[in-house]
Amino acid sequence: MLLRGLSPLVATLSTPLAAPVIAAARLRGGSAGSARGAASLVTEALALARQVGAAGLVGLRADSAYYTGAVVSAARRAGARFSITVPSNRGVRAAIATISEDA
């Protein structure tokens, strides 16, 4: 979605019993890279989850555009579990190839 040169970044919260709600949002101007502002957005959304009562396991899911050290660090500081898709490249494929079938 592109709105007149603005690129939205949105985080949602959900539970097994509740529909997702928007926890944080940013409109980034210009040709913003996908991950620009993502770490602060993650920090804000995960803090809000705790503020509204999330006491157990909190998870973060993101696609490969958000596979950055800053996003991973923000999730770790917040005590969240995370699943972030890693971009596929030669190094990643080589690392995967070293994993045994019974791992």
Characterization of the model:
- The chain is α+β, with helices and mostly antiparallel strands and 103 residues long.
- It has one domain (6-97).
- Helix content is 30%, strand content 29%.
- The protein has helices at residues 38-51, 69-77, 90-97, and strands at residues 6-15, 18-29, 59-62, 81-84.
- Strands 1-2 form a two-stranded antiparallel ribbon. Strands 3-4 form a two-stranded parallel ribbon.
- The longest helix has 14 residues, at 38-51.
- The termini are far apart.
- The model has no long low-confidence stretch (mean pLDDT 89).
Task: Summarize, please.
By secondary structure, the chain is α+β, with helices and mostly antiparallel strands.
Question: Helices and strands in order, then pairings?
Answer:
Elements: E1 6-15, E2 18-29, H1 38-51, E3 59-62, H2 69-77, E4 81-84, H3 90-97
Helix pairs in contact: 1-2
Please tag this protein with its features.
globular; two-stranded antiparallel sheet; two-stranded parallel sheet; 103 residues; alpha+beta
* Overall spatial form: globular
Structural class: alpha+beta
Q: Taking Cα atoms only, what radius of gyration do you get, to the nearest Å?
A: 16 Å
Number of strands: 4
Calculate the terminal CA-CA distance, rounded to whole Å: 40 Å
Q: How many domains, in number, for the residues?
A: 1
Largest sheet: 2 strands, antiparallel
Q: Write the H/E string, N to C.
A: EEHEHEH
- Indicate the mean pLDDT: 89
Helicity range? 25-40%
Number of helices: 3
Strand line-up across the major sheet? 1-2
Name the poorly predicted regions.
Answer: none
Strand content: 25-35%
